[in-house]
Prior knowledge:
Blueprint: E1 2-7, H1 20-27, E2 32-37, E3 50-52, E4 60-62, H2 64-77, E5 82-92, H3 95-101, E6 106-111, H4 119-124, E7 128-131, H5 141-152, E8 185-186, E9 189-190, H6 200-218, H7 220-223
Parallel strand pairs: 1-2, 1-6, 5-6, 5-7
Antiparallel strand pairs: 3-4, 8-9
The protein binds adenine.
Adenine is lined by residues 86-88, 112, 131-133, 135-137, 140, 143.
Amino acid sequence: xxxxxxxxxxxxxxxxxxxxxxxxxxxxxxxxxxxxxxxxxxxxxxxxxxxxxxxxxxxxxxxxxxxxxxxxxxxxxxxxxxxxxxxxxxxxxxxxxxxxxxxxxxxxxxxxxxxxxxxxxxxxxxxxxxxxxxxxxxxxxxxxxxxxxxxxxxxxxxxxxxxxxxxxxxxxxxxxxxxxxxxxxxxxxxxxxxxxxxxxxxxxxxxxxxxxxxxxxxxxxxxxxx
Length: 226
Ligand code: ADE
């Protein structure tokens, strides 16, 4: 999978993909993440990428030309499955969306800033608009990092234990059950007996019950989802 991220603050995206699971995905050649500085596509001397909004009002708007130049440049080199704009008014990201998108091969992600991007870029280029939640970030970069992490770990061969993404919270619309490691007794809190029983079916049943119970109390909305 290849993800090209267009940003006005590319330095923000240096660290998130250089550690742990995403680092491994890159090293194994399963994921390629490329961060592009939008200012490199500005035609003005000052490398301007934003301008005042028509109609007045506070806040700048990201201009059409640098974004258009950048996307056209990228599209000349390869085709993309989706051109995604990270925005709080997009479709709210969830595990099902990530599962579906993890089957695709290539994305451009455009990170918004200021008051957002000129509407015509959305009309002309953007194929999908994604929000990571009902709150406003100061830019789309952290949202792009969240998206890349959530999708990267689903790619076959990225996680060592192939089943572990399937047992994550939200797969099957259930939250994960509680987990324990050594010691058996910590400050008088004891690991449930069943987990020490070695009885695989009983352990699986217990985990399923716990997952169901946790979902009922914390996120009953998930149980009504398809
Ligand atoms: N940019 C600013 N806020 C955002 C959000 N909640 N999701 C995605 N992109 C954003």
